[in-house]
């Protein structure tokens, strides 16, 4: 495990995990207790996570960037025995829960607990699901109340095994960790590398093409995972530099949002000989499908077929479940799918049907069992009775000259004539004029899209906001836009 200038062997990692487990046991942590981790992407996160599950307690990851009210909600709902943090000062909510700072002692390979703050009250007695619960991971909460997804030890081990096998990871494999470990996409790359006895390199600092290239070359990286936005920057970088400095790369994995076949083709040209994987999943059933886009170029419009131990079906609008073909809501079940939400009986009744997880995502299975992802049900655009998903328009339109990134959204029609007005929010290229880029986006939309998909407005933005898991945050774009309109009217 490498982080900056610090390196740790497997035996050192094992020793630190045991140290952490002993401290937690000595401080009253027991099986089924919850521990909130407010830790960045660093060795401390890995040590704390594995120490907690080693005891049989339950990890509750929290993003260090979370606002106090969200962190307070997570603490209130899970009632943890401990909150472990990394900053010099604890998060604001620690008055309600025992907390401690975790850090590595410089150049010793040992960990240090400091700034311990204890509260007299015991955590609430909350009953965990009967299965072996390992983690409760809260959704991004882009709509309404965040929900805690219960993941079992079997879930985490199955996913790690599947991913390690897909990557053919072994002791020579070197995985660059770019995504947050407090989300399933990032943590599963960590777990699969450890499962295979590979080397982990934890990216440090703000992500940039230059920093990424430096790490790939310096550490002889074999593979990495990224959401699609970073690909936009890679594809615009100096190709000669990339080809010269990425000779050790064997595979790239993409997830969190749709990727057009055109983008995959460009990536394959930029990285000849590198296997490109695309996955689909959600916190409740992460990496449910995998596409090897290198050996199946004919399926690049899909997100792949079901992974081992995962079943996919489609429920049509009449509620009929189809396991081989058809269009409708995507249903998942198997070892990689959750069966519980934490303390949410209402959701447990709504989101599960005969062991099937109702994802809220829409798609279509082709005759070979490959899944064509269409989008979130909540993101569907309804323009004058024509219903479609933003991804359908985005994948059809492909690249737009002068535009770095763009997303389609359905903005509520304030005049009430249509339910939604199709709009395209775009980020211009650094050297492009926003007005010119917007006209190009609109012209290409009219040439390539069905009439009801053509945006009625193209709106320049300084950047496309992302959710904490790396997906375009359409709701935030719509909210900001409507707020700006409201302010202009005032």
What does this structure look like?
This protein has 490 residues and is an alpha/beta fold. The chain contains 13 helices and 27 strands. The chain has helices spanning 10-26, 43-55, 68-78, 153-166, 184-196, 209-219, 228-235, 239-245, 261-270, 345-350, 390-397, 434-448, 474-489, and strands at residues 2-3, 6-7, 34-38, 58-61, 82-85, 99-104, 111-117, 133-138, 148-152, 174-177, 199-202, 223-226, 251-254, 275-282, 285-292, 305-306, 310-315, 321-322, 326-334, 352-353, 356-365, 371-376, 381-383, 386-388, 403-412, 420-428, 457-460. α1 packs across α2 (43-55) and α4 (153-166) crosses α5. It is globular and about 65 Å long.
Label the structural class. alpha/beta
Low-pLDDT residue intervals, each spanning 5 or more residues: none
Calculate Rg over CA atoms: 23 Å
Shape: globular
Give the second-level CATH assignment, the architecture of the largest domain: 3-Layer(aba) Sandwich
Topology of helices and strands:
Elements: E1 2-3, E2 6-7, H1 10-26, E3 34-38, H2 43-55, E4 58-61, H3 68-78, E5 82-85, E6 99-104, E7 111-117, E8 133-138, E9 148-152, H4 153-166, E10 174-177, H5 184-196, E11 199-202, H6 209-219, E12 223-226, H7 228-235, H8 239-245, E13 251-254, H9 261-270, E14 275-282, E15 285-292, E16 305-306, E17 310-315, E18 321-322, E19 326-334, H10 345-350, E20 352-353, E21 356-365, E22 371-376, E23 381-383, E24 386-388, H11 390-397, E25 403-412, E26 420-428, H12 434-448, E27 457-460, H13 474-489
Parallel strand pairs: 1-11, 3-4, 3-5, 5-6, 10-11, 10-12, 12-13, 13-14, 26-27
Antiparallel strand pairs: 1-2, 6-7, 8-9, 14-15, 15-16, 17-18, 17-19, 19-21, 20-21, 21-22, 23-24, 25-26
Helix pairs in contact: 1-2, 4-5
